[in-house]
């Protein structure tokens, strides 16, 4: 498949007719860009949806327990099996590759399960979604209350500056910091610090913005539960004078997150900001079967954002139904990274630069009318 993307910047958000401004934007949820997004109608905007017959969509959205139970049991068996093998091999060089697999299962596989169960679509049975969501939230050092509401905002205002709390690649990009993220830095320490802060009853202004006040006590409670377990793990490490407990609990966030970061950067990186059309700010990438299982089909990310209530196992079918209305999917992870890295390198000096992919013949035109407004603070 040929690369049909068009890389370019729109003048209205930089200096008209000249190079874009190198000044970074205010990505906070309480700053001037947040207020401007509300004023011009970008906040909670009406998003573009591809046409899918009602009966077909109802079938695609049907929840069932079977696929998720199968995948979850397989994941837990592999997680326990590799963890047990790593303990048995402790002290031997053979433990190293086993720990690497265990870390991948702990951090990267858990992230996709956390995401889908947070949506409540992985299982038909609600308590199963909640159980897996809370378990994976602990593994990933995420307050389950904060992140449920944070992710809801991410879907409501996807890559809307000042509204979306989950923008991973801000402009201009800090390439060194994002490279360190592949080994969990600084996300692990920031995540743990957030849990500790929440455990003491302290919610940040951003958290208070997207979490309803009625949910604040729950956020504090679950932070205290998580911190208590991590404190016990640290205590065990000191009591046994061994790092083994930390390699099994918490530590895998450092050495097992590389796959989830690899895929997460591709979700929205290098694409448009401030547009109510997921085809402009989200990327679908064809991936190998192993990565698709780890990622739980979230490589069909445009499809997921347009129709977030479609379960992960139905996303390939949804893709086939609407791909005529979407930009061509990136054919592989390496090709997608080539596209992304070129854009990030250019955004270092031209923060307004973004990738604009062409649509297939017959597709509905993009909704990008907000790009005609200068929403950058003067």
TrEMBL record:
Signal peptide (residue range): none
**Fatty acid desaturase domain residues:** 92-333
Identify the stretch(es) annotated as Disordered: 1-28, 356-378
The organism's superkingdom is given as: Bacteria
CDD domains found in the cross-reference section: Rhizopine-oxygenase-like (cd03511)
Q: Which GO terms describe its cellular component?
A: membrane
Concerning InterPro entries, the annotation shows:
FA_desaturase_dom, Fatty_acid_desaturase, Rhizopine-oxygenase-like
Segments passing through the bilayer: 73-105, 175-196, 227-249
Q: Which GO terms describe its molecular function?
A: oxidoreductase activity, acting on paired donors, with oxidation of a pair of donors resulting in the reduction of molecular oxygen to two molecules of water
Which terms are listed as keywords in the entry? Answer: Membrane, Transmembrane, Transmembrane helix
Q: What is an annotated GO biological process for this record, any one?
A: lipid biosynthetic process
Tagged with keyword Membrane = yes
Compositional bias (Basic and acidic residues): 366-378
From the Swiss-Prot or TrEMBL record, give the protein name.
Fatty acid desaturase
List the source organism: Histidinibacterium lentulum
């Amino acid at each position: 498949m040929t690369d049909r993307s068009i890389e370019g910047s729109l003048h209205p958000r930089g200096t008209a007719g000249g190079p874009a401004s190198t000044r970074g934007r205010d990505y906070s949820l309480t700053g001037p860009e947040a207020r401007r997004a509300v004023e011009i109608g970008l906040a909670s905007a009406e998003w573009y949806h591809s046409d899918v017959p009602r009966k077909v969509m109802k079938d695609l959205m049907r929840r069932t327990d079977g696929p998720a139970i199968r995948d979850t049991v397989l994941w837990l068996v592999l997680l326990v099996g590799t963890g047990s093998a790593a303990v048995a091999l402790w002290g031997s060089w053979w433990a190293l590759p086993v720990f690497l697999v265990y870390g991948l299962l702990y951090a990267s596989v858990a992230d996709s399960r956390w995401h889908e169960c947070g949506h409540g679509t992985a299982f038909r049975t609600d308590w199963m979604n909640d159980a897996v969501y809370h378990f994976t939230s602990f593994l990933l050092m995420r307050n389950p209350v904060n992140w449920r509401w944070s992710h809801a905002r991410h879907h409501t205002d996807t890559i809307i500056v000042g509204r979306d709390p989950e923008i991973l690649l801000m402009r201009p990009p800090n390439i060194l910091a994002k490279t360190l993220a592949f080994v969990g830095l600084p996300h692990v320490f920031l995540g743990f610090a957030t849990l500790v802060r929440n455990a003491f009853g302290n919610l940040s202004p951003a958290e208070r913005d997207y979490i309803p006040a009625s949910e604040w006590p729950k956020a504090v409670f679950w932070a205290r539960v998580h911190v208590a377990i991590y404190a016990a793990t640290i205590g065990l490490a000191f009591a046994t004078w061994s790092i083994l407990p930390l390699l099994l609990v918490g530590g895998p966030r450092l050495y097992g997150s590389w796959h989830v970061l690899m895929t997460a950067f591709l979700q929205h990186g290098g694409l448009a900001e401030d547009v109510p059309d997921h085809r402009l700010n989200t990327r679908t990438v064809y991936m190998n079967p192993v990565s698709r299982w780890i990622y739980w089909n979230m490589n069909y990310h445009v499809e997921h954002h347009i129709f977030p209530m479609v379960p992960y196992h139905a996303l390939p079918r949804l893709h086939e139904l609407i791909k005529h209305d979407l930009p061509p999917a990136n054919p592989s992870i390496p090709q997608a990274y080539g596209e992304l890295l070129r854009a990030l390198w250019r955004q270092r000096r031209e923060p307004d630069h973004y990738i604009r992919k062409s649509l297939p013949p017959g597709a509905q035109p993009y909704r990008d009318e907000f790009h005609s407004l200068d929403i950058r603070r003067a």
